Amino acid sequence: MTAVRGSLEKLGANLAPGIGGFRHWWSRALLSWLPAQWRVLLGCSDARLLLSPAPDAVQVSRCRAGRTVPLQRLVAPVTPAVLESALPAQERALPRVAVLPAAAVLRRRLQLPAAAETRLREVVRFEIDRQTPFSADQVFFDVRVVSRHGDGPLEVELVVVPRQQLETLMSPREAWAGQLDGVDVLDTDGEPLAVNLLPLAQRRQRQQPLRRFNRLLLLAALVMLVLAGWQLLDNRRQAAAALATQVDGLAARARAVSAQPQQLQDLLDGQAFFTQRGTQQVAMTGLLDELSLRLPEDTWVEKLDVENGRLQLIGFSGSASALVPLLEDSPHWKTPALTGVLQSTGGRDRFTLVAELQPPVMETADGAVPHTP
């Protein structure tokens, strides 16, 4: 477990410099697209004011992209208010950095492991006692990377200045307390080393423009996220409504299709009903015609009933007993028979005769009547 933890810590130490370098490069690449004045307002520009104090004056210069341009020479004593009144508006927002001559500091070159780059100040602090005649409590210091040799050691430079010399650099001392953004050192060519010897607690407390900018970006991102979610939800609702409409249309078509067989069945049933009624009508006509031919002149029918495949005749006849032979062998009925008792009334017999109806004979397409056994 200890070996795994050590491997993870080593991996994190190796990745941290690369990630930090990539983030720094990416930030610089994005900021390079902004105009110079915007970078100044956002606090992202490398431009700064260099204040070189002398016994009788203060030389004010502007340093940007490694180039130093003299601006003004102000006669001592110089206070922050005097400096602001003497500068143009676009220069007042720049960080103020006092500079020390090269002879006022002590510089030492060191070689450190690459893993120490993430904690350079903590590592170098333990080297002050060995590399300088001062202790860490007697000086202000900073460290800068001079060169990197791939995965090999780092070459760094330790810059040290005594505390008393830094505290009396700008006068009047009370006026400049907390009004400087840093203290740099000029090299032998008169160019700043890009270090900051001023402790963090003594630097000017400036409002971070990027903090407000980041908050606005965060708020805008949250608003855009809410709007995107709302748009996505609205799209889902519209898609659901369109799908519901489509489903309703398909359901209506399905109901119409499912109703067609029932309608067809109803049509077939109606056709069969009318066909049956027509057949029955034709059969009833033939039956009546057959009865009128077979019944004798002295016979008349009082009641004719056709129901459930049976024929029933009720009437009066002068020769009721002779009706059965007369009605046999008919194509419309069969097995005629008298039922009940014959009642004589006025020289005629009241009779009740029943017979079973024959199935109707359907004509073929050419009008011929098929043989019925």
UniProtKB/TrEMBL annotation:
Keywords: Membrane, Transmembrane, Transmembrane helix. PANTHER family: DNA UTILIZATION PROTEIN HOFN. The chain crosses the membrane at residues 213-233. This is General secretion pathway protein GspL. Gene3D superfamilies: 3.30.420.380. SUPFAM superfamilies: Actin-like ATPase domain.
